[in-house]
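Handout, section 3.2

Students often ask what a structure token actually looks like in practice. Rather than define it abstractly, here is a full record for DhaL domain-containing protein. The first block is the sequence as you would receive it.
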Amino acid sequence: MLDTLDAAAVRRWCASGLAALKRHQGEIDQLNVYPVPDGDTGTNLVLTLTSAQQALAMDLDTLPDSGPTAHGHALRLMAQGALLGARGNSGVILSQILRGFADQVAGVPAVRGRELAAALRSGTAAAYTAVSRPVEGTVLTVVAAAAAAAEGADSDDLPTVAGVAARAAAEALARTPEQLPALARAGVVDAGGRGLCVLLDALVEVLTGERTARPAPTPRSARPAATVARETGSDEYAYEVQFLLDARAEAVAGLRRALDALGDSLVVVGDGREPEGTWNVHVHVNDVGAAVEAGVAAGRPYRISVTRFADQSESPSGPVVAGRAAVVVATGGGIADLFAAEGATVVPGNPSTGELLDAVRSTGAARVVVLPNDANTEAVASAAAREAHRYGIKVSVVPTRSPVQALAALAVRDGDRRFEDDVIAMAEAAGACRYAEVCHASREALTVAGPCRPGDVLALVEGEVHLIGTDLTDTCAAVVDRMLGGGGEMVTLLAGVDAPAGLTDAVRAHVARRWPFVEVHAYPGGQPFYPLLVGIE
């Protein structure tokens, strides 16, 4: 039994909640009938909490010099990660519940029963504020019931208050069909509310060490045969638009009014930073362009996603088109063009799990290979691959660390081979391609090649600094020499967006003089930070 919610317990809650949502993901997806389904609620909640856990995992348990307590710091990381990775109406509302929770207890020395009740009340208020037109019988009702029961317990015993809140949430969830005719007609409870109940049960498990086996309540009326297939759209609005927005609060107020006039299911939530913060915007509309333009007028929108409800008419396990596809992560316009020319679906750099999953599904293929081109993205790609399995899509991740490795892998693709054999061949080709990156040092540091100062030219081979120079062209030529000294028949050069004119021509000429039997291919890569990327095969 835990008598306080400390930082370690917060981390366990996030991990346990994510695991529980994954167990119930399919069940929650099938409940998704109201509000207008904007994807799959279970999947959206899993992706949202995955982002929250990634935010916690990236933290090194270091507190800022001033600000929240350790548990408050962890809760705010969890809420911020959920906000930035939120998917769908349900995910955005959950991120705001977590934010309200964190704001309430970040500065208190210990989170016991009464503090938990206050945190749930704060999360409830934040959720209601975020929704332009609150509707009862949804997750809002469920979180409000949990908060009211926690306050009514009037106790400092944390496990007791958490248990009371979780039971009240489950009871409120069972009543949601009485409040929403759409739920009653479909014979289901609210999907977002069910997801919140799973999270509250996970909190009780963390505090008590005992798992609560609480199945979803069965409404009084059975689901009619005509509504067995999950609803997938709205008669009035055809598209879901969602994006992140960097903007001032006063501009967001105008954005709310503009989007409210365009559609429904509007949720706009922020991270609380002043004067300019990050906002997650979600709305259902018919005019996608007008919704995006409203975002541009308010600030800087990015990670824009548009979903047409008619495209979601298949069940999550529905058929996909036979065939294969490749999804590649690319940073740089030239690199993206190279991958597109190879027939790959290209995703911009540093994608979320949801963005990679969307790209995989958009291919329509039954078997997809993903090339992440970065060590950090590899974990995200693996998570997307696991999620894709429930859609009947087999995804294999080839652990490429550089675009030049991905080019080598794509070059050996053969649709006549078994998919598994083709993946092995691609992995072998990527592994046989040694890669290097040339950049300028941003600060003073001690590397394995010696000390460097700001502005020095660094040549990294397989992620380790091998050379430190003062002239960019000379250092690029030197690192190619060093790599070809270990053997190689072909050199690939990708020029960065800031590469000086003639850089690849100078390196190509150098190779022709020193290594006359080596083939050289040079392309404009357009990648930031690295004037040159090198691949040796």
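Discussion prompt for tutorial groups: The CA atoms of residues 435 and 535 lie 5 Å apart. How would you have guessed this from the sequence alone?
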